[in-house]
Amino acid sequence: MPNLEHPAYPAADLLHLESLVPCRESQVSMLLSIFGERQQFSFPSIFIYGHTSSGKTYVMQTLLTTLQLPHVFVNCVEYFTSRLLLEEILIQLQSCSPGTEQTSPVHCDTLNDFVRLFKQALASRELQDETLYIVLDRAEQLREMEANILPAFLRLQELTDRNVTVVLLSEIVWELFRPNIGCFEPFTMYFPDYSIGHLQKILSQNHPPEYSADFYAAYINILLGVFYMVCRDLKELRHLAALNFAKYCEPVVRGEANERDTRKLWKNIEPHLKKAMQTVYLREISSSQWERLQHDGGEPGQLKGLSAHTHVELPYYSKFLLIAAYLASYNPVRTDKRFFLKHHGKIRKTNFMKKHEKTSNHLLGPKPFPLDRLLAILYSIVDNRVAPTANIFSQITSLVTLQLLSMVGQNDQLDGPRYKCTVSLDFIRAIAR
Length: 433
Known about the structure:
Blueprint: H1 11-20, H2 25-35, E1 45-49, H3 56-66, E2 71-75, H4 82-94, H5 111-124, E3 132-137, H6 149-154, H7 156-160, E4 164-170, E5 187-190, H8 196-204, H9 213-227, H10 234-254, H11 262-277, H12 287-296, H13 316-330, H14 336-340, H15 351-357, H16 361-364, E6 369-370, H17 371-381, H18 390-401, E7 405-408, E8 418-421, H19 425-432
Parallel strand pairs: 1-4, 1-5, 2-3, 3-4
Antiparallel strand pairs: 6-8, 7-8
Helix pairs in contact: 4-5, 8-9, 9-10, 9-11, 10-11, 13-17, 13-18, 13-19
Domain Origin recognition complex subunit 5 C-terminal: 314-433
Family: Belongs to the ORC5 family.
Subcellular location: Nucleus
């Protein structure tokens, strides 16, 4: 029983559309009810929002292309000024009707010119009888343009007196768009994140023909069990699934296990998925390099390039500042004299110190420290003499901007700023090398 039904569109097209947009049938059904029939006036503007990789762009492109609805699709990041955006819409509008030749490039400097040229293009291309859909992807960029662009797109149907619907796709909510002076309110629609069941269903559709669907579904289930808590981006998960499937199939290829030996397959793939966990979203190495590392069977400690720590490029003194900040965050103040002075004298190990040294400071987390303590440790660990110049202080600010250090409290503290080191021990070891 098909989920998508609409009297204005053929049942075969709707069935094909349903197969292309799994787990988004309710959103597509809602859009079809809003669109209505081809010649009917639709809602002037629709605002669709949701997190990244929730299917907004894909669903709109697939829906408009499959049902062959006249549309213009523009990414606002690529066309980042109002002039580029308006001209791109007019250029795409020239090729909406089949069998028409590309005309000369258009020049559109103002919104008045756009409305005039837009009406001329619709009249010349015989599009008055059908709804034209203008889809603006990454619509949050409209807020950086002239103040009249967003309100004009929201009521473009009224300005042009034509059958046109503007669809805005964004990752932020409408409340962050609304101008202070007010504007026409669009119809808002939310695309929720894919659940783990939805991701399992979508990713399982890409199974290779040489393996059964159940075998690939079991692999996707293992993959999601490892990565779902840290990554719910469908594109990233699809990339990880394609990258690690060959390693999962190795015992089957070698004849050591069959497709139902889930335990053997899991023990073979588990260490490689843990290594892949370190590179989620980072893309520090290419897919071919990752496959070569898997084929060579290198140990995690031998793999180079699988950690962002080895790729951090910092100025000379910034590295020492970061090391000094880590020492100040994880070492108690009372140990500074023992660690950083050559002639510190004899230190008595009291019961108080022994009691507190049993707990690792790494388990307690970083502690805040003042600026003067950071500089004192820096002077003691750098071989040559360091002058407290503006260059040193600017590098501390840069480390805060890079979120390697965090400032604790307010900037206007009377006793000076306090900082906290936010990087891990592995990061500092890589820097110290």
